[in-house]
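Final report, results section. Input specification for complex C-07:
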Amino acid sequence: AQSVTQLGSHVSVSEGALVLLRCNYSSSVPPYLFWYVQYPNQGLQLLLKYTSAATLVKGINGFEAEFKKSETSFHLTKPSAHMRDAAEYFCAVKSSSYKLIFGSGTRLLVRP
Amino acid sequence: GAVVSQHPSWVICKSGTSVKIECRSLDFQATTMFWYRQFPKQSLMLMATSNEGSKATYEQGVEKDKFLINHASLTLSTLTVTSAHPEDSSFYICSASAGEAYNEQFFGPGTRLTVL
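Structure output:
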């Protein structure tokens, strides 16, 4: 069975600082991994996805994530945080039955 | 890009009434649609998966008689919360997929249900 664990329910950074949101996965098969962002009272927007091609995946809004099989990780990074990046971020893995299994989410706070 | 809409965006109803939420894929045919529920400050929990023209598959613990799902066409799925109670108040989000295993799900903007 697949699962994801997001370490840190809240991450606070200063504007311009590096953003690092952690995600570890568990999967018995090669995983498809996703990062989504959710702004208040809105649905989810796909930031990026890993589907067994390049291990370094670039997404929208300057975000990227690196798939590390040896560490079973898919951490999300952005070199320089903007105020508009403040939101909830979800890591997800697609199960063998095509369902998305979400992590518990990480709220990113950006300080001015 | 693929766009999914939901209607209404929010609804307030009295306890005991039924509420229907629509999910539409606007520019693609969705062979599979998913319904999620999200409580405040929590993650999304899958309620059910529906394929066009067939009965929905519900997740364990989700009452199929309370949450009626219909996927009558390749662009429309509906979720009806029957005899709603305050504990059904939540944020309901749908997503749609064109079907391949690696294809992403495109999410709707969500519907905020408040049951008084």
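Chain B has no helices and eleven strands. The longest strand of chain B covers residues 44-51. This concludes the modelling results for the funded period.
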